[in-house]
Amino acid sequence: MTIAMAFLIGCFAGLRSLTAPAAVAWAIRLHWLKVEGPLAVIGSGFSVIILMVLAITELVFDKLPNTPSRTAPVGLIARIVTGGICGACVALGGSQSALVGAVIGAVGGVTGCFLGYFARIRIVKALRVPDIYVALLEDLVAIAGSLWVVSHSS
Known about the structure:
By secondary structure, the protein is an all-alpha fold. The protein contains six helices and no strands.
């Protein structure tokens, strides 16, 4: 179950690269996830604040017309890295290997990135609605999904 959760948190990082890390930071801070060692710094007060500010900023900038695609190299790499870090934290919280969690989380980051991208395009076309409505729905999925994973991982 822990490895599945590492994959899922990676998928949510694939939707919004900084939402999952912010949720993981809060989970470590609130002791929902028991993470020791170097990754425990993610739960520090400073890290929680920085990740929250960055996650909120990302939610705003995602809606701007000039924002690059998440599938562009920089966006994709960010999702691989944050998915891997979040996967490692979730795995450690479930007493599993951080390395395995990181690999599975990174795979989830790629999966979430492309599934989210193609789903958003198809939903906008199928429903003939402005992209922002689907983007806001995607925000809610990333936030709720990340919170669900970290609250059910230990």
